[in-house]
Amino acid sequence: MSCPPTSTMNKQQSKESLKDKVKGMFGLGPSRPPSKQTESKPSEFIITNEILKELSPDCALHTRIRVIHHVCELAKSKKFEENAVEALWNTVGDMLQSEQPAEARHAVLQLLRAIVQGQGDRLGPLRAYFFKIIREYHPCNEDLADRLEVFKALTENGKDITYLEEDIARFVLIWMDVGLTADFLHVLVNLVKFNSCYLDQNVSHMVQKICLLCNLTTCSTDIEVALQVLDAVVCYNCLPSDSLPGFIITLCRTVNVKEFCESCWKLMRKVLGTHLGHSAIYTMCRIME
């Protein structure tokens, strides 16, 4: 028998490949071998009883702090098994009490930051729990830098407030009374840009405090970031009408500082382009009178 022509074989192969493609689209084809990405998926790290024992209040404080630093490094690079974070916190939570030495409190806050950064979306509602710890922390005026680092990790520098929406505005006002620094103002810029709707009721108080900072401080960095927050309020939120006099007075004072002159002019032009434009002109006339 003679072999079928090559063109006929090619047609048969193309028909078969077309069938395979259609079957694949509807999930009817043969199962695919697992991908390399699935095979190389990293295993979860298990927090052993030995680790928890060394972190427990039964051990010496220096031992607990040493193990916390070790767990911090693990949290940054490995995914913990389910419920491991809760077990860790139940073991070390007592070290955040006000009577504990500063070294112990700092170590636990650093652990919280590492867990938030390393475990990411796995935390779920635990994000709200950790936020409550930061918000209600006592002594509230101490360890501000470490507390702020945990807050920055929880919110991705103010961009993501999932699970924190209800209490974020109150937290911002409280923090502005105790830690209104340039570092916090950078976070506040993102909060206004990405989550302004959750700050609406407190924008007037925020603007008042920021204007007061601009008028009192001599630190150029604070003034620079404060102007960025005010700019974000004008662009991404709505400047309250009752904040307009203090806002304009602040710009009229700050415009005389050479390095901020251009920023103030730009910000004032933006205000004049909003619904408050006529009120702003009227307010400036009243100030000149």
TrEMBL record:
Residues 61-289 form the Tuberin N-terminal domain. GO terms for molecular function: GTPase activator activity. It holds the Pfam family DUF3384. This is Tuberin N-terminal domain-containing protein. Residues 13-23 have a biased composition (Basic and acidic residues). GO terms for biological process: negative regulation of insulin receptor signaling pathway; negative regulation of phosphatidylinositol 3-kinase/protein kinase B signal transduction; negative regulation of TOR signaling; negative regulation of Wnt signaling pathway; regulation of cell cycle. It comes from the Eukaryota. Residues 1-12 have a biased composition (Polar residues). GO terms for cellular component: nucleus; TSC1-TSC2 complex. Residues 1-42 are annotated as: Disordered. The lineage of its organism: Eukaryota, Metazoa, Chordata, Craniata, Vertebrata. InterPro entries: ARM-type_fold (IPR016024), Tuberin (IPR003913), Tuberin/Ral-act_asu (IPR027107), Tuberin_N (IPR024584).
